[in-house]
Fold this sequence. Notes:
Helices cover 33% and strands 23% of the residues. The protein is of the alpha/beta class.
Amino acid sequence: MALRVALIGYGTGGAVFHAPLIASVPDLRLEAVVTGNPERREAVRRRYPDARVLESADRLWESPEAYDLVVVTAPNRQHVPLARTALTSGLPVVLDKPVAPTAAEARSLAALAAVRGLPVIPFHNRRWDGDFRTVRRLVREGALGTVQRFESRFERWRPEIKPGWKESADPRDAGGILYDLGSHLIDQAVTLFGRPERVYAEIDVRRSGASAPDDVFVALAHAGGARSHLWMSATAAQLGPRFRVLGSASGYTVSGMDPQEKELRAGRTPKDAGWGQVPPEAYGRLGTTAADRPEPTEPGAYQEFYAEVARALRGGPPPVALADAITGLEVVEAAIRSAENGRPVPVQ
């Protein structure tokens, strides 16, 4: 029998990412969607007519036995309260990034999850980007030699401010680009090279009228000697390569973004033919200045996150450990300290 999923939130995160990915996994069933917005409730009914539509998460806690999993994609300040209520109601949780506004709150959540014997699984879907899967494979296979520098960018040209909590400077909202895009970039670097020892960061507010950071650079020094240089910006009039990875034997460079988000926004799902595939003209290059060649990009596979969630609920390991998300928040907090005093700081 398919596992019954309750989704809290049907904004961009719920409608574009979580709901279609959940619906694409045979072992999961979208049982209920919580949204207080009347237009979004109608949108749920049109696309997922078999799902219950609830106006408040309180309705979930009235009958927790009706569900096997709660997915939280509400605004950031609601992540921890909703996850705690789900755990105390006996339900495991998938929690959108960042899992909490602070590392201390995330550690508190981990303690409760341990007491309840239930998983809290961070939605770090960018581990299943096709270009990152390619980088991970090349590193694992030793195709680059010893990796010396890992460059990663999420850059956008969005000079106009879009009102909403993501532009909030209130720490409880965990707004700004460091929490939004930085959560992905830091998680990818930690996945490849482990917890960094030191962090250096430059954090700026560039756009007129903005209050939350919109242009950030973060440098990580890893124990094995690799350095990660991470750029995230809403003010990039020209874009750098998505990844440039330099090793002792060769390098790999790829530009453009993984196509899955664009496909999801267009209404496609992992059930469609050709999902997540990149055409040959968009492949990255592997080699040196003396000789390089196109390197086929692995297909993107966001659906694998939820397939692994289903396996985890049946006794397997989680696709992303909550400890990894806590490390990411510790790196974010170190980056903020570094930017404040203008020098590298240790990760605490």
